Amino acid sequence: MHFTSEQRLDDGVLERAFILGDVPGILWTPASAAVSASVPLILLGHPPLGLAKMYPRLVGRALSAAAEGFATATIELPGSGDRPRVPALEQARAELRRLMQAGEPVGDDIVDALVMPLVDTAVPEWQATLDALLALPEIDGPVGYSGGVISIGIRLAVAEPRIVAAGLFAGSLVPRAMFEEARQVTIPLHVLLQWDDEGNDRQASLDLFDAFSSKEKTLHANMGGHTGVPQSAGDDAARFFTRHLSGEERRSRR
Q: What residue numbers bound the domain in which 63 lies?
């Protein structure tokens, strides 16, 4: 991991851009993070729209997490931002746009082509990033995952034992194979669903939530469309991570 830039944000939060191999990312650490007082980590997931476009929302989430004493990090997804285009993904996205504009149903083959290559590539990159981040003296875990793409969160929850809790953003473009993986998820989950999300099939999101095997799983459904997430939803998620990554929950793991 090579840090390429750094700046101080509000409340002394340190933002550092990095490159790991050919994958760019950003790490935010609170002012409280130090070798003598290392902090837990939350991985910030996001849709494949590019870090530059997602930055305002990501930095807002990072600052909120830092206020709770957590470091956060994110990486550029395959085929997004300045990373090389992935022809198969580009073709699948173009077909998805065509179907949605035409009001036609999106078949399982398109969902698979759109999501599975992303999951198969991004999850090992996330794991390599996690290796590098946990080698830093100011970060020691435990680790949470927050956000989307929900299929990436599902795969990470199954494959990565260092992730002990996840806050997921519900979405319906989930391959059928991921429902089987969801049945293997046992960590605590906090799932956010926008009830009137114009791009999601509500019933598919509910079916996916039902598939998770976690003994502790909570579904927070709010009225409104995709961009209408209320501030209270963020507050609920913050309390979820505070409960599982710090305090008594954290001390009990030591």
A: 2-78+124-253
Q: Where are the alpha helices (DSSP H) in 49-149?
A: 51-67, 87-102, 108-134
Task: Report how many domains make up the chain.
Answer: 1
- Give the 3-state secondary structure of 95-118: HHHHHHHHCCCCCHHHHHHHHHHH
Residue type, 186: T
**What is this structure's pTM?**
0.93
pLDDT digits (tens, 9 = 90+) for 26-54: 999 999 887 667 899 999 999 999 999 99
Least confident segment among 11-25, 116-130, 163-177 = 163-177
Asked whether the predicted pLDDT for residue 252 surpasses 80, the reply is: no
Tokens of 12: 């002394």
Q: Does residue 117 lie within any of the structural domains?
A: no
CATH number at residue 29: 3.40.50.1820
Distance CA 237, CA 231 (A): 10
